[in-house]
Specification:
16 helices; globular; 0% strand; mainly alpha; 289 residues; 76% helix
Length: 289
């Protein structure tokens, strides 16, 4: 394959790695440069647009993100590249969740799961199962949320826990927190943090920070809770994740416990000065008290 043809794939791979380690800014630059150069291959274009849509959504450009996500899905369908279609469907579902379109999000994730199952690739469907758990939890359907999370964790556990599993475990921890089982929530978060550190999946740290924040708020530790909420919400968009809608839908009572404490300020020195890569050490320090 000619070097020019390979360039979009190299850009997408580089951008994905940037996104994976929490550098959404560099990922955006790579993606936009590749798209400006022109991408004749629909599969490659779909992958670029699908990832760029995630970053757009996290930065509040929801309409642009939704348009790009659906363009990616259509291009993936046209390309007949099933791997690209699975990727585009998953990202489109995530973008729809950020946009508040639960119906479309569910439709995209369910299609992804069903297509994978028909091909005997169930083990690849752990992430969309977890996203259905997120949707159910945000809708207040705890029984259905636990069903989806349990299925997702069973799929993740069929092999060594890797990237993506920490976000699922953080979702399960939010459910446990809402239901009052703080010990189970803490265990899930401890596993999520250890897994994310082992894999270098820094992009999942904000999910974990928000999970611990809710646990600490429920335990009456407002100061530490406020700092962790602030860190999760501050770093979320920087890694291509919009967590404020999730906090509002699922953790509002816990956020309220911390919100009237001055330590929750986005201008708190620890919130401002702690880089993404230092979150695990700070989380461990704050949780230990």
């Amino acid at each position: 394959m000619a070097p020019g043809v390979m360039r979009p794939y190299a850009a997408q791979t580089g951008a994905f790695l940037d996104f994976y380690v929490g550098d959404a800014e560099t990922a955006r630059r790579r993606l936009e440069e590749a798209l400006r150069d022109g991408v004749p291959d629909p599969s490659a274009q779909a992958r670029l647009l699908a990832l760029l849509a995630m970053i757009d959504a996290a930065e509040g450009e929801v309409e642009v993100a939704s348009t790009r996500a659906e363009q990616a899905v259509q291009l993936a369908r046209d390309s007949a590249d099933l791997q690209t279609l699975f990727y585009a469907l998953g990202n489109a579902g995530d973008v729809a969740m950020t946009a508040g379109d639960a119906g479309l999000a569910r439709e995209r994730h369910v299609e992804c799961i069903e297509r994978l199952q028909r091909l005997g690739l169930d083990w690849l469907s752990a992430a969309p199962h977890a996203r259905l758990g997120d949707l159910a939890l945000s809708a207040g359907d705890h029984q259905r949320a636990r069903m989806w999370y349990d299925r997702s964790i069973a799929l993740w556990s069929a092999r060594d826990l890797g990237p993506g599993a920490p976000q699922t475990l953080a979702g399960l921890a939010r459910l446990d927190t809402v239901e009052g089982d703080l010990d189970s929530a803490r265990r899930a978060l401890d596993t999520a943090l250890a897994t994310a550190e082992r894999c270098g999946s820094r992009g999942e740290y904000p999910w974990i920070a928000v999970g611990y924040a809710a646990v600490l708020a429920a335990a009456g530790r407002r100061e530490e809770s406020g700092i962790l909420f602030g860190l999760g919400l501050r770093h979320g968009p920087r890694v291509g994740r919009d967590l404020r809608r999730l906090v509002d839908a699922e953790l509002a009572p816990f956020f309220a416990l911390a919100a009237d404490d001055p330590w929750t300020s986005a201008e708190h020195p620890l919130v401002i000065s702690t880089p993404l890569e230092d979150l695990p050490a700070l989380i461990e320090k704050l949780v230990a008290g």
